[in-house]
Amino acid sequence: MKARKIPQRKCIVCQNMLTKKEMVRLVRTPEGVVEIDLTGKKNGRGAYICGQIEGFNKAKKTKAIERALKVALSPEDYDRLEQQFIAIQPKYAAYPCGRSHES
Q: Residue 92: is its pLDDT beyond 90?
């Protein structure tokens, strides 16, 4: 029997290839709202980011989320996403990113 392929995705911040399970999916819904997709199956344009808060902060600073999802985000949107990101942090603590997010 053939071994199943493990889906890999590229982080929009550090450009590392990791498994989908190790990453957080951000999605721009058809209504234009950006949210964290915990199921990985929501409709809309998606982008993946490492599960580390440093990666989220760098994405915020460099506007990587806006570029990847082709949408403009307000400071309130970033605050809401950051709170959601912090809430799910423990799930991704065991998956260190291979590259530093320093800058």
A: no
